[in-house]
Design brief:
Helices cover 43% and strands 8% of the residues. By secondary structure, it is α/β, with parallel strands linked by helices. It has 4 domains: 30 residues, no CATH class; 91 residues, no CATH class; 153 residues, Rossmann fold, CATH 3.40.50; 128 residues, Rossmann fold (3-Layer(aba) Sandwich). The strands form 2 sheets. Strands 2-1-3-4 form a 4-stranded parallel sheet. Strands 6-5-7-8 form a 4-stranded parallel sheet, sandwiched between helices. Helix 18 packs across helix 19. The N and C termini lie far apart (86 Å).
Length: 422
């Protein structure tokens, strides 16, 4: 059967009626499709150190269903980013550059190991160095960190003020001038944010009840800067890492205890590159083996669901300790959400997302924290338990914005422990 090429080009679609037509159509379609792609931009981006694996994508699509941004209407995922770059969209100048929370769920399922946890910081760092547009909220967090030592813009002199509110003994290293078993690296949100300080006060009470020999750096401590690094400020991270390592070098201790999974990631995985080799443990991992040593005077009678932080779970492999603690609390019934453990959904705070809610509002149908709160409510739980300082404020805001006040309360695990202690 003869082929009407004009008909094929004009309508861009024909009914296949024979082998000759199919072969001709496929040839012409392939020629036209290939002409839409320019490999030069992909070559440019993948030549940036850390971003090489973007070019390994072979479009299987396994990353898209697990991407938290795509789940809230963000039209996202490594596969889609790869496709856009293929079509000539410069990721360094595109909003997609800032949407990734580096949650690592895509890497978990990727057969080609396309690593967005390395790709995004590398490309964001390039954008920052080239002076390209950085979202205003994120730029403010960078500037606050540089000027004040923390992204909240609070005075460094007030970093240990939370200690006065605890009613507990919280030794400060430069004051006690002696070695300790555990040096507690408190971090920024647990030092300054109202809800973070409440969780810090709770953890201090627990450590004292257990007789732990610990101390904090107080005003000598600076932000670990892991989230700033992942958001593209590698230079800021290096400066603060070196400063913290120098400070830590002044004192003797056996291990570092952290409240924040992001600090865990920095001190455990990144600081060794700059000479800071430490034994680092998240507070839930530290407390879980000792939880039965505490005296519980109150039965909580709560149905509790737990949110796995990305940087405690997928990034650092701790899933059991928080659950062991919750199950040890009298009266707690632990109910798992559908997306839990290594498949846990992201709160939206990682990779700089903590400072990008305004930016993200223009690109998604709802915040990731709102999506997660809806899932928690659906379990029938009364309490959403967390163990990352980013999450308490994010989820409490989401409870209000989704109309779930009175249905769900958000508590740090340390707060639940203290409540059970009476």
């Amino acid at each position: 059967m003869p082929v009407d090429k004009n008909q094929i080009i004009e309508k861009d679609k024909v009914v296949v009626e024979g082998i000759e037509l199919t072969a001709e159509w496929n040839r012409m379609f392939a020629q036209r499709t290939v002409s839409n792609y320019d490999d030069s931009l992909m070559d440019q981006l993948t030549s940036i150190e850390g971003a090489e694996s973007l070019g390994w994508c072979y479009q299987c699509g396994q990353c898209v269903p697990v991407c938290p941004v795509d789940a809230v209407g963000g039209d996202y995922g490594p596969r889609k980013i790869y496709r856009k770059v293929q079509q000539g969209i410069n990721l360094l100048e595109d909003p997609d550059l800032w949407k990734c929370t580096t949650c690592s769920n895509c890497l978990r399922v990727c057969p080609k190991t396309v690593n967005m946890v390395e790709i995004m910081p590398a490309l964001r760092g390039e954008a920052v160095m080239e002076g390209l547009d950085v979202p205003e909220e994120l730029q403010e967090a960078f500037e606050n960190t540089f000027e004040y030592g923390n992204p909240l813009g609070e005075s460094q002199r007030k970093r240990a003020d939370w200690v006065k509110e605890t009613g507990s003994n919280v030794p400060i290293m430069k004051e006690i001038k002696r070695p300790v078993d555990v040096l507690w690296f408190v971090e920024c949100y647990p030092s300054y944010h109202a809800r973070g300080k409440e969780a810090s006060a709770a953890l201090a009470r627990i450590l004292n009840a257990l007789g732990v020999d610990f101390g904090i750096l107080g005003t000598e401590e600076k932000c670990s800067c892991d989230s700033q690094r992942l958001a593209g400020e590698q230079g800021l991270f290096e400066e603060f890492a070196e400063a913290n390592i120098k400070t830590l070098g002044k004192y003797k201790f056996n291990k570092i205890l952290v409240t924040d999974p992001h600090a865990l990631n920095a001190l455990k995985k990144e600081y060794p590159k700059y000479g800071g080799e430490y034994e680092v443990v998240h507070y839930t991992t530290f407390l879980a083996p000792m939880i039965n040593q505490l005296e519980f005077k109150k039965t909580l009678n709560y149905k509790v669901t737990f949110h796995d932080p990305c940087y405690l779970g997928r990034h650092n492999g701790e899933y059991e300790a928080p659950r062991q603690i919750l199950q040890a609390l009298p009266g707690v019934e632990l109910i798992e959400m559908g997306r839990c453990r290594q498949d846990s959904y992201c709160c939206g705070g990682g990779g700089g997302g903590m400072w990008l809610d305004g930016f993200m509002a223009d690109h998604v149908q709802e915040r990731l924290s709102e999506n997660r709160v809806r899932e928690a409510v659906e379990t029938g739980a009364e309490v959403l338990a967390v163990c990352c300082p980013y999450e308490v404020s994010r989820f409490e805001d989401a409870v209000k914005s989704t109309g779930n006040e009175g249905k769900l309360i958000v508590r740090d695990i340390a707060e639940l422990i203290v409540e059970a202690m009476g």
